[in-house]
Amino acid sequence: SRQDLNNWSELAARFMTAAGVTEDDIVHIAFGYGLFTGAFGLHYGAERIGASVIPMSSGNTDKQLMIMQDYRSSALVCTPSYALTMAERMEKLGIAPSQLSLRVGLFGAEPWSDEMRREIETRLGIIATDNYGLSEVMGPGVAGECQYRCGMHLFEDHFLPEIIHPETGEALPPGSIGELVLTSLTKEAFPVIRYRTRDITRLIYDACPCGRTMVRMQKTMGRSDDMLIIKGVNVFPTQIEEVLFQVEGCEPHYQLVIDRVGNMDTLEVQVEVFESIFFDEMKKQRAFVDLLEKRLLSTLGVGAKVKLVEPASITRHEGKAKRVIDKRRL
Question: Which CATH code, of 3.40.50.150, 3.20.20.30, 3.40.50.12780, 3.40.50.10540, is assigned to 2-223?
Answer without folding.
Answer: 3.40.50.12780
